[in-house]
Amino acid sequence: MFTSGDQVSYERVFEQVIGDSAAVVSVLEKIKRVAPTDANVLIEGETGTGKELIARAVHNLSSRRGHSFVRLNCAAIPLDLLESELFGHEKGAFTGAISQRIGRFELADKGTLFLDEVGDIPPALQPKLLRVLQEQEFERLGGTRTHRVDVRLVAATNRNLLEMMEQGEFRNDLYYRLNVFPVLLPPLRERREDIPALVQHFVEVLGRRMGRQIVHIPQKTMSALSSYEWPGNIRELQNLIERAVILSKDGVLRNPLRTTWRQCTIGPPTTLRGAERELILRTLESVGWVIGGAAGAAAKLGLKRTTLINKMQKLGIFRPRLQSRQDVMLPTVQELSPVPNV
């Protein structure tokens, strides 16, 4: 049961969660239920759906909100340094360890640790993570002293952990320890009724940040944004609105989709090859044409970096080279760079 005071708190915590679709309401109801507990939460969903925002809501609605919310993107840390980032190290533990370092688990003591891209934790490190989740204790890298902590874990991933388990890439016992309370975030294409509110929100926030006042969003622009598939989800929407605000004149929001590589080069796909080309182009656009890395197109498509590059070459996909920063219209085929930007 929620009191009126609780409701005010929920509204404040969720003020950055834009939308009132059934899918969003369902997620928020789950967060309200699990936040007051100390249960581990596993947030799943595509890239750009707002997993960190939901993780912060879990923390802010819990009894730990007066303590630290510590975040670590497991995919952004080199594998040989990830153990040190998580658990810390003692002076001399490895070459370059010139002083003692406190890890994220210790920093999050009494608070919440958010492990983003938890599926990228290598198998060799997973037993140590499992131990700290079960026993709330660990040793720093290069140390012998056991440290005890009181940490609530929220993890997130855009990878299929069940498939990784079947392939032997992710421990079963670790998965079940993380997956105490799963929360699946819907992609933006499954909550299209929220797009107008999100567009208005980003227009206001970005316009204020850049000193540009947008007073009118044409219906054609809003319709185009609402019908787009959004492979990059909310992050892609925010980036495109930022582009539109920069390019807009006379206070009217331009349609940023009119200048996309995909829309200027191909129509609706009618073959399997065309559908594959369309998917790859959309994904590349959503990540700014970055191929490698945890947030790159290859990871989003579930492909190896080299495999994606080979497919791009076979399908004739190359990064467009813009003539100037002011001119974002697609250049001619002759002006395209022959080497994809990795």
Characteristic key phrases:
disordered N terminus; two-stranded antiparallel ribbon; 15 helices; disordered C terminus; 342 residues; Arc Repressor Mutant, subunit A; Rossmann fold; five-stranded parallel sheet; alpha/beta
Name given to the CATH homologous superfamily of the largest domain: P-loop containing nucleotide triphosphate hydrolases
What's the end-to-end separation, in Å?
Answer: 51 Å
* pLDDT < 50 runs, ≥5 residues: 1-8, 260-267, 321-342
Q: Examine the secondary-structure arrangement and name the CATH architecture of the largest domain.
A: 3-Layer(aba) Sandwich
Instruction: State the share of residues found in helices, binned by percent.
Output: 40-55%
What fraction of residues sit in β-strands? Answer: 5-15%
Structural class: alpha/beta
Looking at the structure, the CATH topology of the largest domain is Rossmann fold
How many β-strands, per DSSP? 7
How many structural domains?
3
Shape: globular
Structure description:
The chain has 342 residues and is an alpha/beta fold. The protein folds into 3 domains: 4-186, Rossmann fold (3-Layer(aba) Sandwich); 190-259, Helicase, Ruva Protein, domain 3 (Orthogonal Bundle); 267-342, Arc Repressor Mutant, subunit A (Orthogonal Bundle). It is built from 15 helices and 7 strands. The chain has helices spanning 4-13, 22-34, 51-60, 79-87, 104-107, 126-135, 161-166, 172-178, 195-210, 219-227, 233-247, 261-265, 272-286, 297-301, 305-315, and strands spanning 41-44, 69-73, 112-116, 137-139, 146-148, 152-157, 181-184. The chain has a 5-stranded parallel sheet with strand order 2-3-6-1-7. A two-stranded antiparallel sheet has the order 4-5. Helix 6 crosses helix 8 and helix 9 (195-210) crosses helix 11. The radius of gyration is 22 Å and the shape is globular. The model is unreliable at 1-8, 260-267 and 321-342 (pLDDT under 50).
